């Protein structure tokens, strides 16, 4: 018996009941959770302030504090995302395909919940609500293991969720928080074969390595985002500068922020001065020799450094952008396929052939033409929320919403057939 066994048991029992709930019952329970979170707003903010203070005094950098910190507006956004999930179709018991065999057997492929899920995630309190809401709607019980940096926020949020479920006729045991703050519980989760049906690690390299090397339960990996923007000679310079600024500055601590800009030689002298101007005083540029020269006179406040080779493989998660000049589309694609993490990649171009080649050859979950890679997000894709962004290829890829929490079952109806 380990410290989480009682949770595994109650989650399993709760999941068996949840799987049989109608859409109406699940949506009512989720509506009640919305109200409970709204009622708990001040408590959540107070708990979050304590987490933020602790994180700040522990030296967490500001881009990551921004991920952890809540304010009333963010709480409203979190509550609204539940409403979007409520409005989504029930993903369970959907007939995906059906056919009759020559012997009269009627075979249907129907969607069913994955079962009991566990998610290990970063210091983002919104994920606590997003992961729970998606799981509940998909008929999955969920064990939440958020970062110890967000412990107080998560405890308060999960208390409110359970309260909402109880008041709304839902199944409060379908959600649990692993809250010892110790990483020992992660090892217990990874070994919970037969108790946990799937583990979703959502975080950086070290977490993913530990999970992949030690898990005895099925895993859907998410991964770090070393994401690129590649600008072709035909790109609209004004649009390109706006997209680069957005992809770097809008949320630099997010996995879908841009880390390296690849600029084609022919456009470097036009684009780089504009990029330098837009990022001066806001981000550090780490340029190779040619992109540095293309900036010309350095605008006031620009933090300009020389790039070194280790920058191409670095996810800065900060106000830092590496810049490299490339001579061809092929060089850009090769660079991305060498250093990228198969997350989100963009080409900015008016040339449809280049766009097509980029989208076919770049090996990533999300490939964009002429848009910011910051859109890689379940909410932005219309899923209401996300469990994370899968950067591997099995079961789910890219932002994972309700469908990622389902699998299929074959339902076969006969009239006495036996196999000859
Ligand atoms: N693709 C995607 O969907 C996402 C990717 N990311 C990536 O995650 C990274 C940023 O997240 P970050 O804040 O660093 O989160 P971390 O990877 O540091 O932490 C995430 C969770 O994993 C735990 N953890 C971290 N390292 C280990 C380890 N070695 N063994 C066991 N558990 C561990 C943490 O526990 P604790 O802190 O409590 O010890 C926390 O609960 C970036 O690389 C980003 O790109 C982030 C979110 C989504
Ligand atoms: N999809 C999210 C980013 C994914 C995510 O959570 O990343 P991270 O900020 O690294 O924890 C968003 O667009 O904000």
TrEMBL record:
Subcellular location: Cytoplasm
Matches recorded under InterPro entries: Ald_DH/histidinol_DH, Ald_DH_C, Ald_DH_N, Aldehyde_DH_dom, G-glutamylP_reductase_CS, Glu-5-SA_DH, GPR_dom
Entry EC no(s): 1.2.1.41
Pfam family membership, one: Aldedh
Entry GO terms, CC: cytoplasm
Keyword terms: Amino-acid biosynthesis, Cytoplasm, NADP, Oxidoreductase, Proline biosynthesis
Stored PROSITE patterns: PROA
Record-annotated Aldehyde dehydrogenase domain positions: 74-280
GO biological process: L-proline biosynthetic process
Catalysed reactions listed for this entry: L-glutamate 5-semialdehyde + phosphate + NADP(+) = L-glutamyl 5-phosphate + NADPH + H(+)
Pathway assigned in UniProt: Amino-acid biosynthesis; L-proline biosynthesis; L-glutamate 5-semialdehyde from L-glutamate: step 2/2
SUPFAM superfamilies: ALDH-like
GO molecular function, one term: glutamate-5-semialdehyde dehydrogenase activity
The family this protein is said to belong to: Belongs to the gamma-glutamyl phosphate reductase family.
Function text: Catalyzes the NADPH-dependent reduction of L-glutamate 5-phosphate into L-glutamate 5-semialdehyde and phosphate. The product spontaneously undergoes cyclization to form 1-pyrroline-5-carboxylate.
Protein name: Gamma-glutamyl phosphate reductase
Annotated organism of origin: Breznakiella homolactica
Gene (name only): proA
């Amino acid at each position: 018996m380990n410290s989480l066994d009682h949770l595994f048991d109650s989650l399993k029992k709760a999941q068996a009941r949840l799987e049989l709930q109608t859409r109406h019952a699940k949506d009512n329970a989720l509506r009640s959770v919305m109200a409970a979170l709204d009622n708990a707003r001040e408590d959540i903010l107070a708990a979050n302030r304590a987490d933020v203070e602790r994180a700040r005094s522990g030296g967490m950098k500001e881009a990551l504090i921004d991920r952890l910190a809540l304010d009333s507006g963010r709480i409203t956004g979190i509550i609204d995302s539940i409403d979007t999930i409520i409005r989504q179709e029930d993903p369970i018991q959907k007939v995906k395909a059906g056919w009759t065999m020559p012997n009269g057997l009627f075979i249907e492929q129907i969607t069913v919940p994955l079962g009991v899920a566990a998610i290990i995630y970063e210091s983002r309190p919104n994920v606590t609500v997003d992961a729970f809401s998606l799981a509940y709607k998909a008929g999955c019980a969920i064990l939440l293991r958020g970062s110890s940096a967000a412990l107080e926020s998560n405890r308060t949020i999960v208390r409110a969720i359970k309260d909402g479920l109880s008041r709304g006729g839902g199944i409060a045991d379908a959600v649990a928080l692993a809250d010892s703050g110790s990483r020992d519980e992660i090892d217990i989760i990874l070994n919970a074969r037969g108790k946990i049906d799937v583990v979703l690690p959502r975080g950086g390299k070290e977490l993913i390595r530990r999970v992949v090397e030690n898990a005895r339960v099925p895993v859907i990996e998410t991964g770090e985002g070393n994401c690129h923007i590649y600008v072709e000679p035909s790109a609209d310079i004004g649009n390109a500068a706006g997209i680069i600024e957005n992809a770097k500055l809008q949320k630099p601590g997010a996995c879908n922020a841009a880390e390296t800009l690849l600029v084609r030689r022919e456009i470097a002298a036009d684009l780089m001065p504009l990029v330098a101007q837009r990022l001066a005083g806001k981000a550090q540029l780490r340029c190779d020799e040619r992109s540095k020269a293309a900036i010309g006179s350095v605008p006031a406040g620009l933090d300009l450094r020389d790039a070194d080779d280790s920058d191409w493989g670095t996810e800065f998660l900060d106000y830092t952008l590496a810049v490299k000049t490339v001579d061809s589309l092929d060089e850009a694609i090769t660079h991305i396929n060498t250093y990228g993490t198969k997350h989100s990649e963009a080409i900015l171009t008016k040339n449809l052939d280049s766009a097509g080649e980029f989208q076919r050859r770049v090996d990533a979950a999300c490939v964009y033409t002429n848009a910011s890679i910051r859109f890689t997000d379940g909410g932005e894709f219309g899923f209401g929320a996300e469990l994370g962004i899968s950067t591997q290829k099995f079961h789910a890829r890219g932002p994972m919403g309700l469908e990622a929490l389902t699998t299929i079952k074959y339902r076969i109806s006969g009239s006495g057939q036996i196999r000859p």
